[in-house]
Amino acid sequence: MNDEFNKNANVGGLLTFKNISDVHKHLKANSWKISRTQIYDHAATKKLNQSPDGTFSISAVEQYALKYLRRADGSKPSKVLEDIQVKKYDADVRQAIASAEMKELKTLLSGIVST
Q1: Tens digits of per-residue pLDDT, 43-80?
Q2: Over the stretch 8-41, which tens digit does the pLDDT of each residue have?
Q3: DSSP assignment string, 9-75
Q4: Whole-model pTM?
Q5: CA angle 38, 28, 39 (to 5 degrees)
Q6: Which of the residues 25, 35, 57, 68 has an alpha carbon 20 to 30 A from that of 104?
Q7: Residue 14: which residues within 8 A CB-CB, separation 6 or more?
Q8: CA-CA distance, 34 to 56, in Å (whole number)?
């Protein structure tokens, strides 16, 4: 992954993008066909989901790409691949959330036990 993407937030073990420009760079680096104008239009029409804190999660970006974009070579991902990708990213999100909650519980419990 490029150093420019490492500047983005890493929330709960998941990469998030701070702005649409970073999302665009990520998509282009991963061989998706998208213009700057098109991605801004899609963000304005809510095709690209933005988190309440203003960031874009990697799972939302990948789901957006699978649903609305073509590959740089002009091909469209197969429906089977799309379903697998969506399930994989949903599972990754659930796992990251569960991991973060477990860490919070362990921290809370260690504070209670030590007092």
Answers
A1: 999 999 898 998 999 989 988 998 889 888 877 766 66
A2: 555 555 688 999 999 999 999 988 999 999 999 9
A3: -EETTEEEESSHHHHHHHHHHTTEE--HHHHHHHHHTTSS---TTS-EEHHHHHHHHHHH-EETTS-
A4: 0.58
A5: 15
A6: 57
A7: 57, 58, 59, 92, 93, 96
A8: 16
Q: What residue segments make up the domains of the chain, in order of their start?
A: 3-114
Give every strand in the sheet of 14-17, ordered side by side.
10-11, 14-17, 56-57
Structure tokens at 63: 């789901």
Tell me the C-alpha distance between 35 and 68, whole Å.
Answer: 13
